[in-house]
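Predict the holo structure. Ligand: SN-glycerol-3-phosphate.
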Amino acid sequence: MINNSIAVIGAGKWGQALHFALSQKQKVLITSRTKKDIENFVDLKTALECKYLIIAIPAQEIRSWLKDNFVFNGQKVLVASKGIEASSGEFLNEIYSSFVPKKNIGFISGPSFATEVKQGLPCALVINSNSKKLFKQFSPFFPNFIKTYYSSDVIGAEVAGAYKNVLAIASGICEGLNLGKNAQASLIARGLVEMERFGKFFGSKKSTFLGLSGAGDLFLTANSTMSRNYRVGLGLALNKNLEDILIELGEVAEGIKTAEAIHNLSIKYNIYTPIANEVNLILDGKSPKDSLKDLLKH
Ligand SMILES: NC(=O)c1ccc[n+]([C@@H]2O[C@H](COP(=O)([O-])OP(=O)(O)OC[C@H]3O[C@@H](n4cnc5c(N)ncnc54)[C@H](O)[C@@H]3O)[C@@H](O)[C@H]2O)c1
Ligand SMILES: O=P(O)(O)OC[C@H](O)CO
């Protein structure tokens, strides 16, 4: 039996930041695999009885988590993850569609470092859903320091949110190699073109890539060491081993598996994705300097 309350599922960095933000206006429950000392922490069963769920677990874990734990009972769901499943090449909205009807689900996108949200610093986010009613239901839960926008371009927001993580790795590599600000700006601008081209193939709108979900989140993530993906890129440029980089990071960097997913999709559908492909090759051991040479070829 579901009740009228709200729960965040996943108490990692983003789950905790959203819990903090939404708790400014109402009581919000939170749950995670391991018990954490957070106000209103509950077990998963209690969380799943809430009408409004915000799910903030890594993209690669979602399918198995849904299979093992989720029973649809009329809940309204906001997905806070950003990534593409590498094993299948499926977008998160495709994975969720087997578990939650489209009118009951939305996807959060836009520039939003958890650390800043947890400090109550202002930002603007997009709730992407086929249902404007769902946006109207979730939007009032957000605090005054977060402005929410509505978009029906779910696939565009998903591609943008996932792709910018791969480009943030590339941008971190660029800084790690000391290639300069011209190179970094060129990379980010061409990255934006690349992700829009990729998104267009799957039916995204161009305007999504020019707004908060696209340029907004890309400029944020590809310009700051606050980004985990950017830090992965920095480590790769310094020839650090990926395993060591991830141990040091201690949190998820979605761009790693998403690079693999984009690479596979680009081959399958013959989409031109040079930067994402080079990131994927670097993650597989190619030298970042050789990738640079290949990207600069006429
Ligand atoms: N951190 C940010 O600033 C931020 C902002 C926007 C979006 N996101 C996205 O949110 C998602 C989560 O990121 P995060 O920052 O919270 O990562 P994190 O590494 O801090 O936390 C991930 C959480 O997921 C849980 N988890 C992992 N595997 C699980 C499984 N199989 N079943 C249940 N729970 C599992 C972990 O226990 C942990 O609590 C990612 O897709 C990320 O791209 C993060
Ligand atoms: O730290 P990152 O690289 O996972 O990026 C976090 C958010 O997606 C920024 O909007």
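Strands lie at 3-9, 28-31, 50-55, 76-79, 105-109, 123-129, 146-151. The chain has a mean pLDDT of 97.
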